[in-house]
Amino acid sequence: MGVASQLINRLAGLVVARQTDVQIGAGSFVRWLRLGARGGRVRIGAQTITHCRIDFDGPGVVTIGNRCYIGASHLVCRAAISIGDDTIVSWGVTIVDHDSHSIEWRDRQHDVADWAKGQKRWDSVKIDPVELGDRVWVGFGATILKGVTIGDGAVIAAQSVVTADVPPDVLVAGVPARVVRRINGLGEPSD
Questions:
Q1: Under the phi-then-psi rule, with left for phi > 0, alpha for psi from -120 to 50, and beta for the rest, what region is 137?
Q2: What pLDDT is attached to residue 111?
């Protein structure tokens, strides 16, 4: 395959918003990457395959490590989402670093009217970065919410909703996700 064909394949489906800064590492393959229009920064490591949508709700940064696979999933970033090396994120996964709206009606009552004007009030919305460690596997349809740190080597079962930190080398499952067992021959989790 020629250089031009490789570049076209690498950028196939890449839609870059004018205010988004994207850096792609050597040997990475961007099958499809749709970026929202609000700016932000994307850093993709070497030998990584991405096939996801990233929406920025502000000038945040999404960092994806080396040798990762990010399936047809949705990352929503206001501050920061970090994905470590050798991590696999399946299809239908949602990772979001904020609540989007305040839980208090008085603080969100103008959200729709503000959207119509291209505005958003963030002062009452909780925002907290998300971090996935190295060698993490996130099963299809899982949701990872704001402020969560997932330890190295952890596995998130399909359709799980992760609302709290996940220790390294464990399998979590459920809604909300709970530790099911230790993995990598480390024995059962302690109480």
A1: beta
A2: 92
Query: Does residue 64 sit in helix, strand or coil?
Result: strand
> CA-to-CA distance for 176 and 12, rounded, in angstroms?
36
pTM as predicted: 0.85
Model pLDDT for residues 71-118, shown as the tens digit of each residue? 999 999 999 999 999 999 999 999 999 999 999 999 999 999 998 888
Residue type, position 62, single letter: V
* Residue given tokens 């959207």 in the structure block: 115
Is 51 known to be catalytic? no
Domain boundaries along the sequence of the chain:
3-126+145-152
**Beta bridge pairs of residue 53:** 34, 74
- Strand 170-173 versus strand 178-182 pairing type: antiparallel
Structure tokens at 28: 């990475």
Q: Which of 74, 98, 101, 110 is catalytic?
A: 101
Task: Reduce the DSSP state of residue 137 to 3 states and report it.
Answer: strand
**For residue 80, how many C-alpha atoms fall within 13 Å in the half-sphere facing its CB?**
11
How many angstroms separate the CA atoms of 156 and 88, rounded? Answer: 10
Give the Cα separation of 123 and 143 in Å (integer). 24
Residue 170 backbone phi and psi in degrees, to 5: -130, 160
Contacts (Cβ under 8 Å, ≥6 apart) of 152: 84, 133, 134, 135, 136, 168, 169
